[in-house]
Design goal:
Elements lengths: L2 E5 L3 E7 L8 E6 L2 E8 L6 E2 L2 E2 L8 E8 L9 E5 L2 E7 L16
Antiparallel strand pairs: 1-2, 2-9, 3-4, 4-7, 5-6, 8-9
Length: about 110
């Protein structure tokens, strides 16, 4: 799952290559601040076709996933598009919370 993440003025853009994976086999889930992308790709299990049987198959079949920490984002703020084996996800940037410059902590 080769992935590029681009920082733009308005947010982040994730571009992920998923060659040969069907759209219905791609899943995106947001849970506890983590965005998880999973995909599965299968092969027909028939070892024989009308021309004869396979001696060797090297095409990939299996499942894969990647997770990214995105923070406290609502699902409706995320947009995703899958076309020609490429998944594109757009995420908004979070507002930066200003931390106190100096705080004294009482020790009891």
């Amino acid at each position: 799952m080769n992935t590029d993440i681009k920082d733009t003025d308005h947010g982040y853009e994730i571009t992920m290559n998923l060659p040969g994976v069907k759209k219905e086999d791609v899943k995106a889930e947001l849970k506890n601040g983590y965005l998880t992308i999973s995909a599965s790709k299968g092969l027909d299990k028939d070892q024989k076709d009308k021309e004869g049987k396979y001696i060797r198959q090297e095409r990939y079949a299996g499942a894969m996933s990647r997770s990214f920490y995105v923070g406290d984002i609502q699902p409706e703020q995320i947009s995703a598009k899958y076309e020609d084996g490429i998944l594109k996800i757009s995420l908004p940037k979070q507002e930066k919370k200003e931390l106190p410059k100096s705080t004294t902590i009482a020790i009891g």
